[in-house]
């Protein structure tokens, strides 16, 4: 296994590694179909490669004097946008090696802190704690329709294998139930470490 800088020829491998790593986590729905390129901002983009296959990925975006994105700390930060290891290769120190390599590269920069967002996945959060991250803030993701467009709905029956849904004031509801159902999902926990 080797850790190298990201090369565009590995984009498909990057995407597959990410989607598989997230598959059984609370981030499962966060699927990328092309690799984020961060608008020319300074980055650290690393790959773990074994037998020419991408088995681990890490992306960090670095603040500059002009662009500082953290709202939790003052100064120049790096945002750990993704660190993920292919499920068949987890628990072998690859995540740690990716992170160590990024830390080494950060030594050449004026970056003062690293920030990341995570959810309630204990294995990932244990990993982040092991790396030295501390929980600074807990917040909630609320899934919903656009502000003021949400209305309560009444299920009237079934027609053509679809639920007949009306808004509470008797108007036909053209949204899919799936979308309306989003309003009623439990709040998902988001953590900022
Ligand atoms: C989190 C992740 C990047 C860790 O990579 P990894 O290569 O499996 O981790 P490592 O083998 O380098 O482990 C380093 C340390 O992290 C901790 N750790 C890693 N996996 C863990 C797990 N499943 N449970 C508890 N602790 C874990 C351990 O302390 C471990 O050190 P140790 O082996 O000395 O005990 C990887 O498991 C992953 O991609 N998971 C899916 C992504 C994810 O859950 N994302 C959530 C959204 S942020």
TrEMBL record:
Gene3D superfamilies per record: 3.40.630.30
Pfam families attached to this UniProt entry: Acetyltransf_1 (PF00583)
Domain N-acetyltransferase span(s) in chain numbering: 1-152
Protein name: GNAT family N-acetyltransferase
Annotated organism of origin: Chryseomicrobium palamuruense
């Amino acid at each position: 296994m080797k850790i190298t800088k990201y090369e565009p020829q590995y984009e498909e491998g990057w995407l597959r590694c990410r989607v598989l790593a997230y598959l059984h986590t609370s981030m499962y729905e966060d699927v990328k179909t092309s690799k984020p390129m961060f608008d020319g901002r300074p980055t650290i983009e690393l790959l773990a490669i074994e037998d020419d296959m991408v088995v681990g990925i890490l992306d960090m975006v670095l603040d500059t004097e002009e662009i500082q994105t953290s709202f939790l700390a003052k100064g120049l930060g790096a945002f750990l946008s993704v660190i993920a290891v292919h499920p068949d290769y987890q628990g072998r120190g690859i995540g740690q090696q990716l992170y160590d390599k990024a830390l080494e590269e950060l030594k050449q920069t004026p970056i003062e802190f690293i920030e990341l967002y995570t959810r309630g996945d204990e294995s990932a959060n244990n990993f982040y704690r092991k790396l030295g991250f501390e929980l600074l803030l807990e917040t909630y993701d609320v899934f919903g329709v656009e502000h003021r467009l949400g209305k309560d709905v009444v299920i009237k029956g079934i027609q053509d294998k679809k639920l007949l849904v009306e808004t509470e004031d008797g108007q036909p509801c053209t949204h899919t139930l799936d979308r309306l159902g989003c309003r009623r999902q439990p709040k998902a926990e988001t953590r900022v470490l």
